[in-house]
Each structure stands twice: as C-alpha cells, then as structure tokens.
Amino acid sequence: MKTKKLGLLTIPIVLAACGGGGGGGGSSTTASTGSGDSTSSSSSSGATTGLTGAQLLAAYTVPTSITADKQTNYATAFSNNDTGVIARCSVAANTSTTVYVTPNAVVYATTAVSDKAQALAADLTEQSIADVKSYFSQSTTTVGFTGTRINVCVDDQLGTSTAMGTGGESGEGSTGVLTLMSIDSPNFSTRYPNATSIYGTLSYVQLFQHELVHVFVDSRLYPFAGGFERWFNEGVAQMVVGNALPAKATVLSELDSADLITASSSVSSTNFNVYDAYQALTQYVTNEGTVPNGVGSILTLINTLKTDAIAACKSSSLGLVPSAAQLVDMPTGYYNSCYVGAGGTDARVTASFDSAWNVVMKDGDGTTPLLLHTADGANSLEATAHNRLAVYLQ
After folding, report:
1. Taking the domains of the chain in order of start, what are their residue ranges?
2. Are 53 and 189 in contact (CB under 8 A)?
3. How many CA atoms lie within 13 A of 356 on its CB side?
4. What pLDDT, on a 0 to 100 scale, did the predictor assign at position 4?
5. So which residues are the signal peptide here (predicted)?
C-alpha cells in the first residue's frame, strides 16, 4: 500500500474538522482522542505526561530569517476573507499590532500571545506552506497558494473546545486564512498531553500542515470553497499529513459506524471518531497502486468541480447590481447565484462535486468511472466502500 507523505509526518495526530463553503468555507482541528487517530493518547483524561508548551517554546530558537520578518505598528487589519473562519484577530482590540510578514503569510497574534510564540507560528506556517506546495507539486515561487499572502491568526484562547463552530477548536482554515492555537495557550497541554517536541508525537507542526491543506483546497476552489464533501475534505488533509492508520479492524469499524460518503452535513460532519476511515478512503482512491488516480486527480477534481459549479451557478446580471463577491471568476454579464456568504454551500455546488467526481475518478481498471454515490449507479464507492477497504488495507 503506497502513499505519498510529507517527510516530517510519520507520527500520528488526532484531527477533527468543521465548517463549509460559500464565499469561503472553514475546517478546524482539535487534538484529542475521539477526534481521529485512535492510536493517539487521550487528552480528556486530564493526565499530562509530555512537555508543556512553555517548555517546548523555551527550547526553540527563532531563525534569523523569521526575526527579520517582524514588523511593529502594522496598519493593515486582519481579515477572514469572507470565510466562515472564526478568528479573534478580526477584532482589533484582541490583536497585537506586531506581525510577522513572511514570504507567504502575514502572521497576526492575539495580545496575550508572546512574541516568541508568534515567531514560532510564523516559522511553522512557512515550513508547512512549503510542505503542502511540495506535496501537490506547486510552484515554490507563488506567494501563498494563489499569489496572495495568507492571513494567520495565532490565538492563545483556542483549544478550549472540540465542538464545531465554537471558535474554540485548535485550528481552522479556509480561503487564504487560518487561525491556530498558540503554543503558549493554557490549553496546549490539554490538546497535546504527550508532546515531546514541536515535531514529535502529537506534533504541533501537524496542526499547521492539516489546516493549510484546507487553505490550499479552498483557495483553489474559491468562490466555491467548501465544495468538497466532508469525508474527502478531511481525508485529503489527513493523507497529506501522513498519519499512520490504525489496525484494519479499527478503520473498518469506523467506516461501518455510519454512511460516511455523503453530501449531507450530518454524522460525517460532526463525528470526530471516523477520521481514520476518511483517510483510508482517500488513500484508496488516490493510491496509484490500487486505483490509478494519483495525487494529481485531486487537483483535476478541484478544477472540474469549479468549472461545473460556474456552469451551474452563473446567472445573468442584466438589471442587477451584484456584489463584488458574486462576480468573482464569473463570465462577463453573469453573477454567482450560488454565493451565500461566509460558511454556506449552495446545493448546486454540492451536486457539482458529485458530477465532477464521477468524471475525474476512475476505478481499478483506469477507465471505468469510480461512481461516488449509491444513487449514481452500481458499484459506487459509497455502496462498496467496506469491501474495497477490506481488500486494500493490510
């Protein structure tokens, strides 16, 4: 079973996500057992056996390149880019005027975050952007993922909750924006109770990598961010991070716990115990050794979904005055009638994912479409997922 992984990412981490589309979706992360990788240690037991965030930060040395990126009295306010991302840096009173303007990001911080913690976040953001670009074979010279620096908010109050949409998750990312828990957050040890290094078990860097995959996907999909179905959106992020899957029986149990391959935002959106199954399904679909789609098929799916969504959503703007957001990437004379604002995804975009999938993804022979949903036809991935993974997993 061959999968492409980021070089740093060989240690399991628990990840969970929420959010969705419209002008820009949002996916968030929390590190706690019951949220993904069942091989991780529980953060709900109250026991902390690893190093604290303060200890990890004390051992870290800020690179001179990051130090040079520091700017004080920065005048441009943080923006969540019309996404569903909940970031406290959106409120000026919460936000320091000191930022780190790196080659690919502007890293803001809430006022209680230490300068060194903010610098670390800037460093890990740059490293993780490079990792994601490398994984998807993207140009290293492009600023951010689409030519614009990514807005990053480092928040000392994140990590208080695993509930979606609370603004208390460990991280959340969408089109050109993400917010992440600072390493000096009082919640750090709750989220990473067994941490031994920034790059080690339950590694802090993986929080950045996971969320930046969401930023990459949604930025490429914009203005149809959130267009991926939940299982695939999280599966791609998990696959890129490279977590080791648990035992076959564990993955199949997660898979059988509910219908995960669904467009509805029900159990597959809220159940943080099935992320291994998300990852396994995504690896199965993209793994060149079994189903010959490859990592490149994800990019093709993004492009096809966006094309299909434009066709489904474009409406004549004659006699209307659409907002600037409704005109993004629309043909002249048309506006995006699917635009519903931050955090929403129109049903036509959801349908476009299904239609794009059925065109792009191929079954094991390399030519037959790998149909997505049971309603699409016989031998669909939804209908046969258990049997397929039972053979694929070792």
Report:
1. 27-226, 248-392
2. yes
3. 26
4. 53
5. 1-16
